[in-house]
Each structure stands twice: as structure tokens, then as C-alpha cells.
Amino acid sequence: FAGLAMGRDLKSHFLVTIVDAKEFFEYTPGVLRAYVKPKHLDALTFTLYPVIEYRMECKFIWGEVKELNGPERTATIKPIFSQATEVIDWDYCMVAAGCNFGVFHKWGESLWFPTIHEVARPEGSWPHIDERFLEGRRRHILEEYAAIQKLNDKSATILVVGAGFIGVEWITELEHFFPNLKLTIIDALPQCLGPLPERAAAYCSRYMQRKGIKEFYNLKYNAKDPEFYKGI
């Protein structure tokens, strides 16, 4: 978001170059729907090159920034189809690399954002897929969709840990598209959607109850404790 916004706003005054390790933009807040309805990915993505080069009239480099040298004002970049790195110079550099969601993974890996960095991909959970390419991202989403479909076919039990915005959206998406799943959501807080007003959280909780989703609050996730699973 921020990188494209800065390019748009600065292009009339400066020569702007945008570097990205993947070839596409993905609207992250909507990606949960893609995992339960894969064709929705088309509504969330676009290829960066034509937008940046032709619509925005900026320069686009598809590659990974490996190093920034502040004193020399240079960036070392490894282009997507090259084994060697290249060095470009800049007068002012802005880093808009976003964030990673998987706080318990070495590289912050999660389903909600493609794994695109060279050092992270071999140590990820899906190293056979190259999500720097839009088709690679699509293949990953299709694989996850097929896995959920198998769980739905055998009426599996699913536990969603965390009843924040993403957790509640994810479990309700699963309920809507895979009605055979047995769904449970937990959170350490006393209610779902902690940052929201109590009435809004109560509304969402009533919705989940109507849909047969089990809720447990004031409960911390403890995968190694057999009593934890007995309690839910």
C-alpha cells in the first residue's frame, strides 16, 4: 500500500523507482476469502509492472533488496531472473516492506502474506511453491483450499486460536463455505474482538453462536496440555 502511494504522490516531482520481490500487488485484508473461494484472488491482485511503469510512470524493478548502504546512498538488488546482484544509487530512500504475521515462525511466515524472500523460502512450510510469481501464489491458495475441502468432507474439528479481527473473520468464512466443519474459537481475552466496543463484540458473538461456532474466552492456548483440549 504505502510504496505505491508514495510513488503516486512523488512521481510528478522526482524520478521514482519502486523495487518489489514479487511481481504482483495483493490486497491483504481480503485474502482470507481467497482461501475459501480461490477465484476471489483475481479481485485482490494485479501485476505491478504495467501499473507502475505505464499508469504511474515510475520505474519498477522486480527483485529483492539485499542491502542498503546509507552513507553511500546505494541499494544492492538481486533481480528476479539474475544470480548476480546489482547496485543502484538513490538520493532518498523509503522502506515500505510491510509486516509479517507469523510471530512464532523464524521468518514471520503465515498464510496471509506470500513468502517471497530468498532466505525464507527454503525454510518455509511450502518451499515447493514460488510465491514471487502470481501463479505461484494461486497454486498455494488452491493447495490450501483442497486441504480444507478434505477436512470438510470428513466433518473435521477445527480450532482457531485468537478471536481478533482475523480469527473471527476466518472462522466465519470457514463456516459459510465449509458447513460440515466443527468449529471452535478461543481467546485469552474475556470477549472476541477485544479492541471493539462491547456491543459490537456481543453482536459478533451472537452471530457465531447462531452458526454453531463454539467460543471459549479467558483461555490461553496450550498445545502440550491434554487438559486444555478436554476443556473445549
Can you tell me about this structure?
This protein is α/β, with parallel strands linked by helices and 232 residues long. It is 34% helix and 20% strand. The protein has helices spanning 2-10, 31-36, 41-44, 48-55, 134-153, 165-177, 198-210, 226-230, and strands at 17-20, 24-26, 45-47, 59-69, 74-79, 86-89, 157-161, 182-187, 214-217. The strands form three sheets. It has a four-stranded mixed sheet with strand order 1-4-5-6. Strands 7-8-9 form a three-stranded parallel sheet, with helices on one face. Strand 5 and strand 6 (86-89) form a beta hairpin. The radius of gyration is 21 Å and the shape is elongated. The mean pLDDT is 95.
> Based on DSSP secondary structure assignment, what is the total number of beta strands?
9
Average the pLDDT over all residues and give the rounded result: 95
Order of neighbouring strands in the sheet with most strands: 1-4-5-6
| Helix segment tally | 8
Radius of gyration: 21 Å
Question: Structural class, from helix and strand content?
Answer: alpha/beta
> Outline, from the CA principal axes?
elongated
Sheet-strand content, in percent, reads: 15-25%
Largest sheet, in brief, is:
4 strands, mixed
List SSEs in N-to-C order: HEEHHEHEEEHEHEHEH
* Ends apart, CA distance between termini: 39 Å
Low confidence ranges: none
As a percent range, the share of helical residues equals 25-40%
